[in-house]
Recover the amino acids of this structure.
């Protein structure tokens, strides 16, 4: 019988967010909004008591055959591609407002991070000769790299299965009068000083957790009521008041 010995904090899973200058960007139903040519980081956090591997996909494709390893309790901000010394950047452009174009840009701006458990020594010792038919055996056993700030990545020769079927297509306007709409993709930005060093570890081949964020052009953002700052004024003298006031500090009018 297959025995999984991974230890984690109850109810907690590794996760990813998009941030700028280490400040997390507010999400609206899994979407965030950035300006054209705005650079960003991917925040990664590991709540487990052992290392996890993070594989990153941008615009629907893996950015590398390598992944990022995060140590127990560690929070890191990855700002660059693993195989290129370039920061992550969101770039916008216009396309025709047709069904074909909408399908073509369905994965534009999609950031996906798949997390994988570390293979335990118990599993390697007692189950090394048994390969279950349901689980794919890990093939992460090549030299990887470690970031100079504690983040490191590991090269992997095996294929990673993406079992998620979430549709992140944009809800573009169906207004026939609009001949085009704005979309955006993650591309290469300016040079990065974030560096790596080598490490050698093994991880499972199926993800234990997946985070998905859709980056949209800022021009497509709708104003949400909770983001509006309503200014209140005294009906007696017109002085700006605080919502907690019971009486106007200027004229004494009851609020």
């Amino acid at each position: 019988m297959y025995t999984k010995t991974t230890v984690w904090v109850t109810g907690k899973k590794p996760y990813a967010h998009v941030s700028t200058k280490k400040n997390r960007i507010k999400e609206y139903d899994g979407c965030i909004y950035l300006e054209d040519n705005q650079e960003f980081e991917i925040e990664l956090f590991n709540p487990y008591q052992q290392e996890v591997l993070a594989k990153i996909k941008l615009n629907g494709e893996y950015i590398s055959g390598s992944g990022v390893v995060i140590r127990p309790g560690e929070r890191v901000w990855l700002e660059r591609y693993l195989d290129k010394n370039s920061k992550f950047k969101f770039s916008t452009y216009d396309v025709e407002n047709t069904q074909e174009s909408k399908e073509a840009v369905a994965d534009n701006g999609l950031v996906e991070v798949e997390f994988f458990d570390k293979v335990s020594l118990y599993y390697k010792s007692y189950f090394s000769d048994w390969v279950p038919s349901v689980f794919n055996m890990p093939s992460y056993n090549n030299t990887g790299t470690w970031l100079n700030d504690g983040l490191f990545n590991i090269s992997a020769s095996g294929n990673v299965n993406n079992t998620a079927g979430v549709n992140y297509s944009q809800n573009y306007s169906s207004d026939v009068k609009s001949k085009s709409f704005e979309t955006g993709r993650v591309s290469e930005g300016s040079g990065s000083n974030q560096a790596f060093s080598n490490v050698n570890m093994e991880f499972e081949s199926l993800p234990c957790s997946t985070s998905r964020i859709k980056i949209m052009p800022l021009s497509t953002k709708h104003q949400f009521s909770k983001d509006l700052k309503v200014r209140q004024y005294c009906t007696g003298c017109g002085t700006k008041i605080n919502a907690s006031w019971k009486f106007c500090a200027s004229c004494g009018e009851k609020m």
